[in-house]
Design brief:
Length: about 260
């Protein structure tokens, strides 16, 4: 059922048809982009679960490979789901410094049927897990650079943590949990730095400013940009019109109120 739900929304993006959904737009936009790049034209109706895709080019969004247009496109959701294995391996290796522990973690994920199943359909789950685990890995890597603050690698992992936080929140609001995790880790780091009497208040201020910039302002800017893209792409009338004001509907091509002067 979920595949018919999110696959249909991928089609909406390809056809630029406005719709409304409870989740933020990033996951559906990426599904639509994957379908567009792999030759899917957005014409499959996604009416009920189990309908055959027939000649529609759906593999780019789902599972397997797509050979349309003489190009090879790795399936999007499966690719992101497969990234969970190296993410988990690197995270555990960084935390434990134990190769057997990291390998065991990777093997457990490789043979986890739930992860395999979620990653082979057109769902938001593998996209969400990609950003969740990416945020955790980035956070752990940034912590490992604590002895060389403000270095290039430290800035890279701190900024990448912010990007992954925006990605997790941009797919589903459950991404708030990884925001909470990173937030608690940041508070712990700052409290530890504040108690370090060898650091001046100026240096502490720089640490605080860097985290505000990379972990608050950067994710907020990216999250806002997702909605800017969402409303720019979806400029045609669709099933989501009724959730918005008449003034907004007047901007949608094909709507009865299109280009009509609407009083404030």
């Amino acid at each position: 059922w979920d595949e018919t739900h999110f696959g249909k929304m991928g089609s909406y993006y390809i056809n630029r048809t406005f719709f409304f959904d409870v989740h933020p737009p990033l996951g559906k936009m990426l599904i639509g982009l994957a379908g567009y790049l792999s030759g899917y034209d957005g014409t499959f109706p996604f009416q009920k679960p189990g309908d055959r895709y027939e000649q529609h080019s759906y593999l780019g969004m789902r599972g397997g490979y797509n050979f349309s247009h003489d190009l090879l496109f790795l399936q999007f959701c499966a690719f992101l789901g497969s990234c969970l294995v190296p993410f988990a391996y690197l995270t555990v290796l960084e935390l434990s410094k134990s190769l057997p522990a990291a390998l065991l973690t990777a093997v457990i994920l490789i043979f986890d049927t739930g992860c395999i199943t979620l990653s082979q359909y057109i769902l938001l789950d593998p996209i969400l897990m990609f950003f969740l685990m990416g945020a955790v890995l980035s956070m752990v890597k940034c912590n490992s650079c604590a002895d060389r603050p403000f270095s290039a690698s430290w800035w890279f992992w701190l900024s990448l943590t912010g990007v992954n936080l925006a990605g997790a929140m941009g797919v589903k609001f459950v991404g708030l949990f990884v925001v909470l995790l990173v937030g608690l880790n940041t508070i712990y780091d700052l409290w530890d730095l504040l108690g370090n009497l060898s650091l001046s208040l100026v240096i502490f201020g720089k640490h605080l400013l860097a985290r505000v910039l990379c972990l608050i302002l950067l994710p907020l800017a990216l999250y806002t940009a997702m909605f800017a893209v969402h409303f720019t792409v979806l400029n045609k009338s669709g099933p989501g019109d009724g959730f918005f004001s008449s003034a907004f509907q007047s901007q949608l091509i094909g709507n009865n109120l299109h280009n009509v002067s609407v009083p404030e």
